[in-house]
Amino acid sequence: MTTLVTGAAGFIGFHLADRLMSRGEPVIGIDNFNAYYDPQLKEDRVAELWRRHGDLLTLHRIDFADHEVLEAALGSYEFDRIAHLGAQAGVRYSLENPRAYVQSNLVGHLNLLEIARARQVPMVYASSSSVYGGNTKLPFSEDDRVDHPVSLYAATKKADELMSETYAHLYRIPLTGLRFFTVYGPWGRPDMAPWLFTEAILTGKPIKVFNNGDMRRDFTYIDDIIDGVTAALDRPPTDNGSAAPHRVYNIGNSRSEELGRFIEVIEAACGTKALREPAPMQPGDVQETYADVSAISAELGFSPRTSLDEGIPKFVDWFRAYRALA
After folding, report:
1. pLDDT at residue 326, rounded to an integer
2. Whether the predicted pLDDT of 289 surpasses 60
């Protein structure tokens, strides 16, 4: 079973590729190694994949938003399914560089749908909890309306879900969208709070506490996320001949944690207190996220098992080793 993984040098893509190859399954990886954050981290992730799995990985350094380059690169390869995890990430950056989101998240997603249609293979793709926008009903359910996004990033992810519904309906391609909730863990992204806070605390710099700390997030450990992604890959939607074979699931820890407690757990793992700097809510942010995971639990057997108190120390230990910070 060979899987095409986009964003293979990214945080979730790296961990998925590692899990699949640990099962003895070949991976064809795609990543353009863009500079949204330090490309060296992406290079280091890929080097770790080569070290662990050798010949099971094939890697293409291309931009999947360029359909001609994508099709040419994949022309001679056979694969059984697609995990489309590549995207232009980041809520706040979408305010600064909106065209990057349209190109990667809309044009790029369409290109992968076209690959799935041409090859007639199922695809799992990354959506986001950001699609819930400013919804106040908690926990967030897949049945909730999601037509009031508060960032362009969120709007592109909802558009991906709509395009996927259309392709599943027209071409009967099994498609699964996963709404990720604040993923963290070893090899995580440097633009996200676990990295930013840990680095600041260990170097004696202040951390920005947005909305004066009145925020809550459903923090989900990477191993639990990968459990859900692999379950979705292994059990694509069936085509019953009527509804489109397309499912969208929340995938989170199903527990909303206060920002203050999150900081306290990092402080304990680092062994020192943070210097807290109050800051206003940022444009595009939401006050709280909380995942109802009953659908993915019932249909795919997903069961998050890593608490914040277990996951954060694992991240901090990895961070110390990676950055050689004592």
Report:
1. 44
2. yes
Q: Which CATH number fits domain 3-323: 3.40.50.1820, 1.10.760.10, 2.30.40.10, 3.40.50.720?
A: 3.40.50.720
Element (H, E) at 294: helix 294-300
Show which residues are catalytic.
153
Answer with the residue of higher pLDDT: 295 or 324.
295
Contacts for 242 with CB less than 8 Å, ≥ 6 apart:
none
Bridge-partner residues for 60, per DSSP? Answer: 30
Looking from the CA of 266 toward its CB, the CA atoms found within 13 Å total 28
- The candidate with the shortest Cα–Cα distance to 193, out of 70, 114, 276, 134, is 276
Tell me the pLDDT tens digit for each residue of 168-219. Answer: 999 999 999 999 999 999 999 999 999 999 999 999 999 988 877 778 999 9
Could you give the CA distance from residue 97 to residue 261 in angstroms, rounded to a whole number?
A: 32
Nearest to 131 by CA among 164, 108, 168, 100: 164
Give the residue extent of every domain in the chain. Answer: 3-323
User: What's the CA gap between 112 and 126, in Å, rounded?
Assistant: 12
What is the Cα–Cα distance from 193 to 11, expressed in whole angstroms? 14
Nearest-angstrom CA–CA distance, 316 and 39? 21
Specify burial of residue 306 (Cβ count, 10 A radius: 0-12, 13-18, 19+): buried
Is 95 a residue whose pLDDT tops 90? no
The rounded mean pLDDT for the chain is 94
pLDDT at 283: 78
